[in-house]
Amino acid sequence: MTIVLATRKSAMIIALIAFIAFCAQAGSSVQVARADGCAQSGPALGYCNYAGESVPKYTPRWLEVGNNLRYWYANEIADAYGGSVSKCTGYKKEGSGIGTWLNCGTGTFSSPINGGYRGWIFIEQLANGPRIIYGQGRHNIICC
Amino acid sequence: MNTSHIGRRNGAVLGGLLGCGMIVALSLLLFSGSASSETAPAVSPNPTFSVLQPDTAAARTGLPDNVQAWLAAQEASALPGLKGEELIVIGVAQTHGGEAVVMQMGENVCAYMVDQETNSCGSVDLIKSGSLYLFTPGCPSFVMGILPDGYSEITAESTDGKGTETQGIPVTSNVYTAELKSVNTVLTGTSNAGESFRTELPLGQVKASCQS
């Protein structure tokens, strides 16, 4: 009897944790992109690759929220359709409310970011339907 | 049929073939010998983009610092298209919007706007279709793009609630730049070879940036 009660209690706790996790995910207003990882490419320069997945129109894909507050130099973007997708790079300064577009276009391009500000980076696409886009941010790894 | 006649004819054919083969082999030897004794450029200038010239150490050293930094960053890039691609040819275009450094890296052609520190890269096919463009949202938006040889001017038609405005945009050394209203815009052009393109610029889709 005791074992049955304990098992039932454990199952309820697991279900509750799963429910909380589900609510947190569904309630999130920010689309978080999977980060392929960050690496050091020089004495003071690092880069992070992100997204590489299908994104709906006008849906910013932020690089790993919570781990991407850095002094960014540039945000670069590409797509999986020979560069034909119209897409944008974006940036949000630390302390500011909303992200702003840096550059938009086709092909592969990078947008410079004033390295004097810490912030977050994102990418999004403007096609009429989900498209696979890739992002890469380059940042200062000494200062932060 | 006389078999000795056939034998003589076959012998003549065989002899002719051997003779031709020797001449071809000799020609190849002579050709390869003369080619190796000269210092020929590794890569010819790109026939589609006359602004591009073979990359040399002197040309690369003379590039602005921000272009060199960008080139170095591409070595570490993991994005599709540019990683590991070798810089082959290079050129400079003096556009209406400032200096643009044009480069071919592998199968891609790129333009780097020196003052704006923005750049755009795309395949030759994408560029030939007139579809490679980059814009910085604003009021007005700064637009740049790359085109193959043969275009001297293209046309921008910007449409908003008040009507349509038409503006000519010069193309200098395969690059065009313009400042355009942040409204729906169509670029059209016809080359002197009769090829044409029509590209929609989604400038109106990022209109919100005008408030900043």
What does this 3D model show about the protein?
- The complex is a heterodimer of chains A (144) and B (212).
- In chain A, 18% of the residues lie in helices and 47% in strands.
- With 144 residues, chain A is of the alpha+beta class.
- Chain A has two domains: 1-29; 32-140, Jelly Rolls (Sandwich).
- In chain A, strands 1, 2, 3, 4, 5, 6, 7, 8, 9 and 10 form a ten-stranded mixed beta sheet that branches.
- In chain B, the strands form two sheets. Chain B has a seven-stranded antiparallel beta sheet, with no helix packed on it. In chain B, strands 1-2-3-4-5 form a five-stranded antiparallel beta sheet.
- Helix content of chain B is 26%, strand content 37%.
- Chain B has one domain.
- With 212 residues, chain B is an alpha+beta fold.
- Chain B has four helices and twelve strands; from the N terminus they run H-E-H-H-E-E-E-E-H-E-E-E-E-E-E-E.
- In chain B, a hairpin with a 2-residue loop joins strand 9 and strand 10.
- Classes of the chains: A alpha+beta (144), B alpha+beta (212).
- Strand 7 (100-105) of chain A pairs antiparallel with strand 6 of chain B.
Question: Nutshell version of this structure?
Answer:
The complex is a heterodimer of chains A (about 140) and B (about 210). Chain A has about 140 residues and is of the alpha+beta class.
Keywords, please?
heterodimer; A: alpha+beta; Jelly Rolls; 2 domains; ten-stranded mixed sheet; 47% strand; globular; B: 212 residues; alpha+beta; 4 helices; 12 strands; 37% strand; disordered N terminus
Which class of secondary structure composition applies to the elements of chain B?
Answer: alpha+beta
H/E topology pattern of chain A: HEEEEEEEEEE
How many domains of chain A?
A: 2
For the sheet with most strands of chain B, the description reads: 7 strands, antiparallel
The total number of structural domains of chain B is 1
Shape of chain B: globular
User: What would you call the shape of chain A?
Assistant: globular
* Strand segment count of chain A: 10
Rounded to an integer in angstroms, the radius of gyration calculated over CA atoms of chain B is 26 Å
CATH class of the largest domain in chain A: Mainly Beta
How is the CATH topology of the largest domain in chain A named? Answer: Jelly Rolls
Percent helix range of chain A:
10-25%
Query: Uncertain regions of chain A: pLDDT < 50 for 5+ in a row?
Result: 16-30
Order of helices and strands of chain B: HEHHEEEEHEEEEEEE
Query: Reading side by side through the largest sheet of chain B, how are the strands ordered?
Result: 6-7-10-9-8-11-12
